[in-house]
């Protein structure tokens, strides 16, 4: 089932995992087969596969494009010199370091020099290898100019883009997506796309996954509804340009290296397409969050938007979790996140507003990494303020906030750029140093005796 949704001059199809079809010219889709001898309007048929041909049907992803010229019509790929060494797709001790310290970055400035989405993309951390088809990379981007006469193609994995500042107009082979801060976009492995910046300077976060794709989390006992609803995922409708573009460049990220190939036409020449391997976007404000309704703090997995699974049940290669505006109602409960150590590793970003566990220092456009088993939790100010408010707080709504977490079972190694960055907050540890002991032996003993014996 498909629905068409209009977003100004951008039209979308709605649904997650659907088999979609879209025509920019009526009759451009072959009616009864994928590869007719001659396609309508003299188009070329081309398939893009997002899973092996033989993947089980419920996981099989592929789409068919009907395009003016096939993608193969280009000069040979050449290594881009200088290559952008700020992008990594495998992580080992020759290119990254490991570090159990709590790490935090201040908001990263958008440079003054002309920088498009490709030039402005840099890896923060990651694990595994795109070659081995297992792992992920976490990147950030800062850009101030639209991609011009070029398209990007990531052969390594899927991008989940979280814009924090500035809208992105993303032209893809399936059509165009307008993505505002507060929305996310997924650009699956292999799709060609170009990013324009209608608002000027732009900044955001990118999670890249190797060897698998995002899916909606199971809802378990929550039931059939809640969290992200499938119908709120929006897929572009066919859009094409039939122009000659001398010197048009396809920049291909392959094994973390950038290659380029020149052609003389736009890659956005798909007049019609059908399939279930598609780019899409999602507005985080549509998310229906869940939480405790009586006592104690729920684990953040309760608000998972999308998950990239591993073969182990319940263990994610990468979960995308959000901390949206919501009511806090728990009684006799420490409401902010608990102090904890996690066998999973947690990378966090902030799209706007503040974050309940950090009174200072964690700012929109900044980031933090709490690696495997690294202790963390509310800073001193947040802890003291929570205790000072006491028990009679009543229902309280957290508003104007959108923090998120990329959480993984694979332990990230940290890029040179991230470690040497002037935006690294060297004093991060100080935010917990002031946590005082509130231990009072007499009171505690009398309380525990009371519980045990005085009932
Ligand atoms: O560390 C963090 O801030 C993320 C987080 C939030 C939460 O509410 C519970 C656990 C957790 O890791
Ligand atoms: Fe955490």
Automatic annotation (TrEMBL):
Organism in which the protein naturally occurs: Psophocarpus tetragonolobus
Q: In which pathway does it act?
A: Amino-acid degradation; L-phenylalanine degradation; acetoacetate and fumarate from L-phenylalanine: step 4/6
InterPro entries in the record, alphabetically?
HgmA_C, HgmA_N, Homogentis_dOase, RmlC-like_jellyroll, RmlC_Cupin_sf
Q: Which cofactor does it need?
A: Fe cation
- Protein name per UniProt: Homogentisate 1,2-dioxygenase
The UniProt entry, under CDD domains, shows: cupin_HGO_N
Q: Does the keyword Transmembrane apply?
A: no
Protein keywords:
Dioxygenase, Iron, Metal-binding, Oxidoreductase, Phenylalanine catabolism, Tyrosine catabolism
């Amino acid at each position: 089932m498909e629905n068409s949704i209009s977003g100004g001059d951008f039209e979308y199809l709605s649904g997650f995992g659907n088999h979609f079809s879209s025509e920019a010219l009526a009759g451009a889709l072959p009616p009864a087969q994928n590869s007719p001898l001659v396609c309508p309007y003299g188009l070329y048929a081309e398939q893009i596969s997002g899973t092996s041909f033989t993947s089980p049907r419920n996981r099989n992803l592929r789409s068919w494009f009907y395009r003016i010229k096939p993608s193969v019509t280009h000069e040979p790929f050449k290594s881009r010199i200088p290559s952008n060494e700020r992008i990594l797709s495998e992580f080992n001790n020759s290119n990254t370091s490991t570090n159990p310290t709590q790490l935090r970055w201040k908001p990263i400035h958008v440079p003054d020099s002309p920088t498009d989405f490709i030039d402005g993309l840099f890896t923060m951390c990651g694990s595994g290898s795109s070659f081995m088809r297992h792992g992920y990379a976490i990147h950030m981007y800062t850009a101030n100019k639209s991609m011009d006469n070029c398209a990007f193609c990531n052969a390594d994995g899927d991008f989940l883009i979280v814009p924090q500042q500035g809208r992105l107009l993303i032209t893809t082979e399936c059509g165009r997506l307008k993505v505002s801060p507060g929305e996310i976009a997924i650009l699956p492995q292999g799709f060609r796309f170009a990013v324009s910046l209608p608002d000027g300077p732009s900044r955001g976060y990118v999670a890249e996954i190797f060897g698998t794709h995002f899916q909606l989390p199971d809802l378990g006992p929550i039931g059939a509804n809640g969290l992200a609803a499938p119908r709120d995922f929006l897929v572009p409708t066919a859009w094409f340009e039939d122009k000659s573009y001398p010197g048009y460049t396809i920049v291909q990220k392959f094994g973390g290296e950038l290659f380029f190939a020149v052609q003389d036409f736009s890659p956005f020449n798909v007049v019609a397409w059908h399939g279930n391997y598609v780019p899409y976007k999602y507005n985080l404000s549509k998310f229906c969050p869940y939480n405790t309704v009586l006592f104690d703090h729920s684990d953040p997995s309760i608000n998972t938007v999308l998950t990239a699974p591993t073969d182990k049940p319940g263990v994610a290669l990468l979960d995308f979790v959000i901390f949206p505006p919501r009511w806090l109602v728990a009684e006799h409960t420490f409401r902010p996140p608990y102090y904890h150590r996690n066998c999973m590793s947690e990378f966090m970003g902030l799209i706007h507003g503040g974050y309940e566990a950090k009174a200072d220092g964690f700012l929109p456009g900044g980031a933090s990494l709490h690696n495997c088993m690294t202790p963390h939790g509310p800073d001193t100010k947040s802890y003291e303020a929570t205790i000072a408010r006491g028990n009679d707080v009543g229902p309280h709504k957290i508003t104007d906030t959108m923090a998120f977490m990329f959480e993984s079972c694979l332990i990230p190694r940290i890029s040179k750029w991230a470690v040497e960055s002037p935006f690294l907050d060297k004093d991060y540890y100080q935010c917990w140093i002031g946590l005082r002991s509130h231990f009072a032996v007499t009171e505690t003993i009398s309380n525990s005796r009371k519980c045990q014996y005085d009932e």
